[in-house]
Amino acid sequence: MPVFTRQRQLPGPNDEPAPDDESETGGAGGNDSAEGETEAEADNPPYPPRRPYLRWALTLLAAALIYVCLQMPNTLGNLRLREFVRLPAEAVIGAAVLLSLPRRPRIIAAATTGAALGALTVLNVLDMGYNEYLGRHFNIVLDWELLDDAQSYMKDSLGGTTTVLLTIGVIVLAVLLTALVALATVRVANVLARHKADASRGTLIAGTVWITCTAFGLQIAGVPFAADHTAGVVKVHAARAMDTLRDEAQFAKDAKADTFGGTPPAELVPDLRGKDVIFTFIESYGRSALEDPEIAPGVTSTLDTSNAALTKAGYHARSGWLTSATFGGSSWLGHSSTLSGLWIDNQQRYRTVMASDHLSLTKVFKKTGDWDTVGVMPGVQKGWPEQEYYGLDKVYNAFQLGYKGPKFSWSTMPDQYALEAFQRQVHGKKRDKPLMAEIILTSSHQPWAPLPKMVGWDNLGDGSVFKGIEKSGTKPSDIISDSTRSKQEYGKSISYSVTSLTQWLERYGTDDTVLVFLGDHQPMSRVSGTRASRDVPISIVAKDPKVLDKIADWNWTDGLQPAAKAPVWKMSSFRDRFLTAYGSTPHPSKD
């Protein structure tokens, strides 16, 4: 008598494939339930799951990944355990929505939502980096182009090969994270659908708990247990993007208004006629350099020594504070805010001003026709169209100062050499007119390793003397993640830049030299601290007492070091105050 065994029927060419664990969790392309088959039957195949422990382990990992992404903070200071013991409203709402959808729409919605969550997590990581280095959040409208500057900085600090590998690694990780979160969301959605009754009850309970905790303000370690972090981040990014777009239109109108835009040349800075006026920005020279107890002793000692030397040489100084438009980087925003008289705190504003006719402080001197105007920009290594806006007849970039020595990380040459080259090629030459110069000193640019040292001014030559100093210096990788060592080296770099500048003035200055020098921004928050102000020191130095008498009503501090309670102004106010103090007559421009 034949024995019949029940066998699984193989699908025919026109039959639907039977659902299994692989198709259930991995794809969005399966057909909807066959005719007469319920949603529950489609999500619960009649065959026992294979490797159930592995399946549940993967599901738990997928859920954990989603949970971490939902709770991921956007600052390193908030990257704490307490942020990850909260109940996210987005998870409750997402589960409810996915449970209500048929299979195909559910998978599409899960994949799309997961990919968006992954991309938002990448933005949170970018936010962490921007907060750590620039003291502000990432702007999704304006800041993508700054990533190229970040890559250049890494190349100078860590080397080309390391930078390429890190860049590739970051891109791969960002894409991988987005894909993994999408797949994880699909998997969790399918598990919820296979256990629809239990999942629905759990979602209802979780929603009730969230509402109750919100109503009673329940907290864990000072943090509300009921969270809506992801929704809040999306809302903030959207609001920031809308504010940016509105700001572009309004700022373009503001830039057309200029208090001194219509002033005749003869009525601009008449009290500085015959003077050599030099505006110098010292990279990252911020208030923390003078007040942070781990940094200040060396810097203030340098300022005291330099002030004594200048006083002996017949110079006098007054100093105050300016609040920078930027923090930790983007130095050009600080430069342009100081010289344009406009608050330029983002790249779009910068582009708008550079393309405008708004009068820069340096261009004032060119407009008079009574000064030669030059720029010394050792950090510029490519075309610099901003030269026209700043009214500079000639710009000496990194390749035009005759330097043959080594780079010091990002800085193309030591400040002492740049100043000596300025003396040799510009300031020391005979001219028919006085000189107005804009000088950017770069030796105090992060990562502050290796650092140059002062050498004899007569021994500078073509800069080759610095080869041994650079070779024996500290490597960027040795301090880049060490806050204490970064502070120490930062302080040394500021002392070096200040010493270079004041010794240059002592050595080469004349009775008609007027030096204005200031910082462009504070160093990054890992050095200056998360609660640091945006203030930078500014000093005006001259031999002629009449120069400083003109600013007596500013109430600045005597000497190179501003008192803690000295006046604090926004950078954007300096242009008009300076022009007014030295006799300029306001004649507003017409729109």
TrEMBL record:
An example Gene Ontology molecular-function term: transferase activity
Domain of life according to the entry: Bacteria
SUPFAM superfamilies: Alkaline phosphatase-like
InterPro entries on file: Alkaline_phosphatase_core_sf
Region annotated Disordered, chain positions: 1-48
Coiled-coil regions listed: none
Entry keywords, A to Z: Membrane, Transferase, Transmembrane, Transmembrane helix
Transmembrane residue ranges: 53-72, 84-101, 107-126, 164-186
Protein name: CDP-alcohol phosphatidyltransferase
Native source species: Streptomyces ferrugineus
